Amino acid sequence: MKEPKAYEVFAIRYATVERRSSENFIGGDLHDAGMPMDYFVWVVRNSEKTWVIDTGFNAEAATRRKRQFLRSPVEGLNLLGIDADSVEDVIITHLHYDHVGNFDLFPNARFHLQDSEMAYATGRYMTDSFFSHAFEVEEVVGMVRNVYAGRVEFYDGDAELEPGLSLHHVGGHTKGLQVVRIWTDKGWLVLASDASHYFANMNESRPFPVVVDIAEMIDGWKKMNKLVDDPGRVIPGHDPKVMERYKAPDSSMEGIVVRLDV
């Protein structure tokens, strides 16, 4: 079989919030300390194709939810030479406000989403604030409108999008959470999104408190580790350590963009 064409992978930091470590683990943390949360969108590209993964939230949502908004994710894309108007494909890992806000800034994109995520975000569980608080109803309704406009591609479980790029349903955090597996020059890499907010969630087997199924979340960690040759190449969705462990492509992107495949 021909080896797939390797992708570059980038994380774009667009917001942050101060938190305590006790807020980031079920059961709290005996050594409670500051443990901030960063917010990212991601880019996967090679010479043939560019994919955007998630679309973040905007300044209004940041004010409403008391997050520190640093920049529009679109500004980070621009630093990588990507115009949101030209993006053809956006993978939505799940429909929480910090992953699907700003979808309107991608007017020519198709959105790739799990069947089970749309069912979850529009179904019975949304009558309970424990599950619904991380969703924005207008964003969910907006994605339904995109369905009717023929702009959403649905998946029922794992799926290969292109050689070297695939979606893998893990659930746990939400019913339809999907992670993304990417072939790079250094081997397989997985973008975990909220399958693990921090390295510590999956590496220390300490689930994040926003969860619909803890057993699925833990099974998701095991599944992701099987998708890579090195567990260190599973990248969490919100950990500030990502910005410390990986380097910016050049000095103009310091503190904003890091490259994950090198």
UniProtKB/TrEMBL annotation:
Source organism superkingdom: Bacteria
Domain Metallo-beta-lactamase: 38-238
Keywords from the UniProt entry: Hydrolase, Metal-binding, Zinc
Keyword Metal-binding: yes
CDD domains: AHL_lactonase_MBL-fold (cd07729)
Cofactor(s), names only, from the UniProt record: Zn(2+)
A single MF term (Gene Ontology): hydrolase activity
Family recorded in the similarity comment: Belongs to the metallo-beta-lactamase superfamily.
PANTHER family xrefs: METALLO-HYDROLASE RV2300C-RELATED, QUORUM-QUENCHING LACTONASE YTNP-RELATED-RELATED
Protein name per Swiss-Prot or TrEMBL: MBL fold hydrolase
